[in-house]
Amino acid sequence: PVVLPAEGDPHAVWAARQQALATSPALDAEMPYWLAQLADAPAIPQADGHAAATWREARQRHIALDRDATSELLGPVLAAQRLRINDVLLTAVGRALCNWTGSEETLLEVEGHGRDAFDDGEPLELSRTVGWFTCLYPLRLRPTGEPGEALRAVKESIRGVPRAGIGYGVLRHLSKHGLEL
């Protein structure tokens, strides 16, 4: 017989925790951080090189890495430098965008898995809960200098995101503030 672990928290509990966060004073304390991320967002040029692009005109590009390139990215260097794969990938994307635009910084919309704790002392048990718990948030990167410097700067930017980004979505969609990216 198959014995499954205890049932986890349903999606409704996660949604209720977001609603509770929307009225929390802790969320108001995040507002300066998110406003700083959005302030004077660097523009990405359009194909003609003359006008700034808008999010409405955004396009996606998909790139796949082969087995050898993936092994290099996931190898012992990550562990030795205490890096996560997102640190490396966001550094590469940030450097490419900064090189293209001529700017020292760029603003990206980052997607997190949304299953992180809400920092209220009550961890969610979502390991057996099926559903999409994603959170989207803006992340300003300044990946300048030598590659090692750029990696450290991006790593610090990522680690500095409050609540792994979940507060931005709450501020944008559930609170009185209505932030816009």
From TrEMBL:
Highest rank taxon of the organism: Bacteria
Pfam (any one): Condensation
Gene3D superfamilies: Nonribosomal peptide synthetase, condensation domain
Annotated Condensation domain residues: 11-177
SUPFAM superfamilies cross-referenced by the UniProt entry: CoA-dependent acyltransferases
InterPro entries assigned: Condensation_dom
PANTHER family reported in the protein's UniProt record: ENZYME, PUTATIVE (JCVI)-RELATED, PTHR45398
Full protein name: Condensation domain-containing protein
Organism: Bowmanella yangjiangensis
